[in-house]
Specification:
By secondary structure, this protein is mainly α. It has one domain: Up-down Bundle (Monooxygenase), CATH 1.20.1280.290. 81% of the residues lie in helices and 0% in strands. The chain contains four helices and no strands. Helix 2 runs parallel beside helix 4. The radius of gyration is 14 Å and the shape is elongated. The termini are far apart. 14% of the residues are buried.
Length: 84
């Protein structure tokens, strides 16, 4: 298997890693089991990875982390909406 395929698979798995949590928050209408610190910490890391990808001009790193940031923004929005 080519190494770039491994990179793409890794990017897909991590990019959509928070989707199950988002679906759980949406379905249960609760964020009680979610750590907002984790969401913000992961978001900071994703932003740094995206900046690193921009520096390297690596489209896979840039795209994966940009999409991950969007899913994290949705998760953070649900957290604040349901944690009232």
């Amino acid at each position: 298997m080519e190494w770039y395929i491994i990179g793409i698979l890794a990017a897909l798995l991590t990019t959509f890693g928070f989707v199950p949590q988002i679906l759980k928050m949406k379905n249960t209408r609760s964020a009680k089991d979610v750590s907002i610190v984790t969401l913000y910490q992961f978001s900071a890391g994703v932003i740094l990875w995206a900046l690193y990808g921009l520096h390297l001009k690596d489209n896979i790193i840039i795209a994966a982390n940009s999409i991950t940031l969007i899913t994290l923004a949705v998760a953070i929005g649900f957290y604040h909406h349901y944690d009232r």
